[in-house]
Write a structure and sequence with these properties.
The protein has one domain: Nucleoside Triphosphate Pyrophosphohydrolase (Alpha-Beta Complex), CATH 3.90.79. About 25% of the residues lie in helices and about 45% in strands. It is built from 4 helices and 7 strands; from the N terminus they run ββββαβββααα.
């Protein structure tokens, strides 16, 4: 069995918020991964040469959501591993808390099939990846927004599904 090559990758993105009717909301997007598989994620992307992490986050969030945003605070980074085309990647994604200052979700690019505003309490059940749910929980804590505890998963329930 051949050994996989190793590489690192970096991205940057944001938890974009607004307040509507006195309730904070954030932006999530749907990415089609396979024919019938969609993931709900936060906007993020890869830097271009010479671009700062902050500039990458601002540009990628604007492209993927159609919104104009400003950074209000740094958030934690997320790390994960994946394999693509015979290479095992260790990826770090740097996130920022952001505020929408203009734009329109209808102008989002092709990377998301759908982009929408959701209430924080709904994001916990919608976001696909636990690392992003945890990050949004951190943003909720910074904003003083209630955040649900991670639901426990019963192994028997998973096996039955």
């Amino acid at each position: 069995m051949a050994r996989l090559k190793s590489a690192t990758a970096t991205s940057a993105g944001g938890v974009v918020i607004r307040t509507r009717d006195g309730r904070p909301e954030l932006v999530v997007g749907a990415r089609r991964r396979e024919r019938n598989y969609i993931t709900w994620t936060l906007p993020k992307g890869t830097p271009v040469p010479g671009e700062s992490t902050e500039d990458t986050a601002l540009r990628e969030v604007a492209e993927e959501t159609g919104l104009e945003v400003s950074i209000t605070a740094p958030l934690n980074s997320i790390e994960y591993r994946f394999v693509r085309d015979g290479t095992r990647y260790h990826k770090t994604v740097h996130y920022f808390l952001m505020e929408a200052v203009g734009g329109d979700l209808g102008r989002h690019d092709h990377e998301f099939e759908e982009v929408r505003w959701v209430a924080f309490e709904d994001a916990a059940g919608l976001l696909t990846f636990a690392t992003e749910r945890s990050l949004v929980g951190r943003a909720a804590a910074l904003l003083g927004v209630p955040w649900p505890e991670e639901p426990s998963v019963d192994a028997a329930e998973v096996a039955a599904s």
